What we know:
By secondary structure, the chain is α+β, with helices and mostly antiparallel strands. The chain is built from nine helices and four strands; from the N terminus they run E-H-E-H-E-E-H-H-H-H-H-H-H.
Amino acid sequence: MLLHSFRITPNNRKVEAFIVHFDLPVEVHQVSFKDKETQTDEYFELNPNRRVPVLVDGNFKLWESNAILTYLARKFPETSALPTDIQGRADADRWLHWQSSHLMPFMGAVKTGVETDLNNIKPWFTALEVPLKDNDYVLGSLSVVDFAVAAYLMTKLGNKLDYSEHPGVDAWRNRMTNLKGFVETQVKMPPAA
Length: 193
């Protein structure tokens, strides 16, 4: 298996962190935007959106980071990272959709300047606090959900957010930051000249 990625972004990093954390046999290729690698005809065959990440497993090509996470969790059930019962899976899907429908758009709006009040994330943190108030992880045990959500809260912007009113989220974020997968996929930016 081969993952085409660009580690610096949360959607790519969450997949890479999952692969590294569970020592999965997936080769990771960092695409070159400078060389316009995603603009080639060959890349279009992998993902007609011309984005990363893309997982290639034989003839199967899968794009969208959360789909890749759930695919890997099912391909490698020893990770125990995706519930197999119908309600557990629905709970996982709920949080994956929450990440892509609420958390990611908020972070994007802040990054582009459309949203200027960082306190407007509090309702999303309040929702996330509910499962984390009494659990170490969103679904109770480490899952694809934790990788999907945490990657957004480990960004430069995520580090600027106020977690003081949400101690469960804060403690969970610290746990996730120290996981092997996230430690080993941390991007070290060169010092400013």
